[in-house]
Specification:
Length: about 525
């Protein structure tokens, strides 16, 4: 990935020119748009700019997979809360579901995704006309369609109906930018089209330095997830369950009942899914790529989950588990949902930090009458043992879809389509076995198996920006949404059906006369 992670379109460099320089009638050096899209290098850079929105960061910028999904989404769910270091009022209001259409994080999520889609649309318009190697051109266009599908998939899950923009907008009149929302079904149809076309042209693997780019297997795995999402709430297109099964099996390895030849499998040690030393291993189907302390491309999540005041560590404890009451324990959290033998727990969390300055351990005890010697669990998935610099940026990649999730998608969809079959058990049990858990009890009903998959998704994928989307789509035995009940269970008494989707940002409505607010937010 290092060949493309840090590149912006060349013409963005001109943003730093002074007004005097910029207004010269005959600039000494100016690169117009028509001059830019001429070479193979231009095409590669243009596609790299679409990837850029997955992982870019810095002190003042958040992109979806580098902090923004956490501060703008995870905090609204049932597993996480803003810690003492998270003082932003938009984040704190979101965490208690008191947000509104003017919430900055809700706007940033919208803006970041559409900015990425705009760059994708530029590529799809400009690159076909550039004369260079046809095979590389086809691949680059496939990567771009994959990324556009991913960005629209996030948008439609966050906001419901949204504007579907498929062309490069370069209008003169502001009114031409006014676009109405398209139905979710149309958004999903385009996502399916983009992913299907991407899967047909992308390679199975890459050699260095291109490891980490979108592959055919990634397109198929993501499409399986798209099908499962459509089959679930709120769309309830139940026929898509079988589509999810079929597509998942195209990406699953033969040993797991699939026909895929992509080399995917679970790594034996759960910790190696996340440790930077093992990045882009056989479990990573597609991930946001990070490099510690390099051009603002480090993963900024790690310092946000470190206890403040540990000498030598730049933690600000901005992200913490959500505590709620269960029985007589007023400090129950997702940490306590893991069984003691679950190997995932002590990779996902740590209870103390060792100072690199003095070697001492620092923890945060809890005065909990129900649990003697209780202490605070801190999120640990994006820790980077090799990074001891003051910034503590991590080089840990963020999996956007990995093989364990593909197995869980397959298990869930197979159960919904055909009951808890041998295939469904096999996929779920493989994930459980790696976690050190016994095989799931046989003879479960479809409803019981569904609940088991839901729990393992929660424990397997926590802190990976998955839980909010699962809260939206999951249901009970009668196909009723469990969203409000799950939120109220952890003390979010404000939870209401309207919170399933975010409101359309008010600033977007103000600038677009055709854009209407989501009904329950009017």
């Amino acid at each position: 990935m290092k060949a493309f992670k840090y590149i912006l379109l060349g013409f963005t460099a001109f943003a730093s020119l002074s007004c005097e320089e910029f207004l010269k009638e005959e600039p000494e050096a100016f690169l117009s748009e028509d001059q830019y899209y001429k070479t193979q290098a231009d095409a590669v850079n243009a596609v790299n700019a679409v990837y850029f929105f997955l992982n870019s960061g810095g002190s003042s910028v958040q992109t979806p997979y580098n902090t923004l999904f956490n501060t703008g989404m995870n905090m609204a769910g049932d597993d996480e809360d803003p810690g003492p270091g998270a003082t932003n009022p938009d984040v704190r209001s979101l965490s208690v579901l008191a947000h509104s259409s003017t919430n900055l994080r809700i706007y940033e999520l919208w803006q970041q995704h559409y900015a990425a889609i705009k760059k994708a649309n530029v590529v799809l318009e400009k690159v076909p006309a550039i004369q260079f190697d046809d095979a590389l051109k086809t691949r680059l266009l496939g990567e771009t369609k994959f990324l556009r599908a991913l960005y629209y998939f996030n948008l439609v899950r966050l906001y419901g109906d949204v504007p579907l923009i498929l062309e490069y907008q370069k209008y003169v009149n502001a009114a031409d930018y006014a676009i109405a929302k398209s139905p979710s079904a149309d958004i999903y149809a385009q996502i399916e089209k983009d992913l299907t076309e991407a899967a047909s042209v992308l390679p199975a693997t890459y050699a260095s330095p291109n490891v980490g780019r979108a592959t055919a297997g990634a397109a198929k795995a993501l499409l399986a997830k798209v099908y499962l999402t459509q089959a679930s709430l709120p769309l309830k297109v139940s026929a898509k369950y079988q589509s999810a099964v079929n597509k998942a099996e195209e990406a699953l390895s033969a040993a797991d009942g699939g026909t895929g030849n992509y080399g995917y499998d679970l790594v034996a040690n759960y910790a190696e899914v996340f440790l930077p030393a093992f990045k882009n291993n056989k479990e990573h189907i597609f991930s946001a790529q990070f490099k510690s302390n390099s051009l603002a491309q480090g993963n900024n999540e790690w310092p946000r989950s470190i206890l403040s005041g540990v000498p030598g560590l730049n933690g600000n404890y901005a992200h913490m588990v959500r505590y709620y009451t269960q029985g007589n324990d007023k400090f129950f959290s997702i940490y306590k949902l893991y069984s003691k033998g679950d190997k995932r727990r002590d990779v996902t969390f740590v209870r103390s930090f060792t100072s690199p300055s003095n070697g001492r351990k620092y923890a945060l005890p809890i005065a909990n009458a129900a649990v003697p010697n209780d202490s605070t669990p801190f999120w640990n998935k994006w820790a980077d043992p090799a990074s001891t610099a003051v910034t503590n940026q991590s080089a840990a990649n963020v999996p956007i879809i990995r093989y364990a999730e593909l197995l869980l998608i397959h298990a869930e969809a197979e159960n919904e389509a055909n009951g808890p079959t041998v295939k469904a058990y096999k996929s779920l049990n493989k994930v459980r076995k790696r976690a050190g858990l016994a095989d799931l009890t046989t003879g479960l009903t479809k409803d019981q198996f569904r609940d088991s998959v839901y729990l393992d998704r929660r424990l397997e994928l926590t802190y990976e920006y998955q839980r909010w989307f699962d809260l939206i789509r999951q249901r009970d035995a009668n196909y009723n949404s469990t969203f409000v009940a799950n939120q109220q269970k952890v003390g979010k008494t404000n939870a209401a059906p309207k919170h399933v989707y975010y409101p359309i940002p008010q600033s977007e409505i103000d600038n677009n006369a055709l854009l209407k607010q989501n009904p329950l937010w009017e």
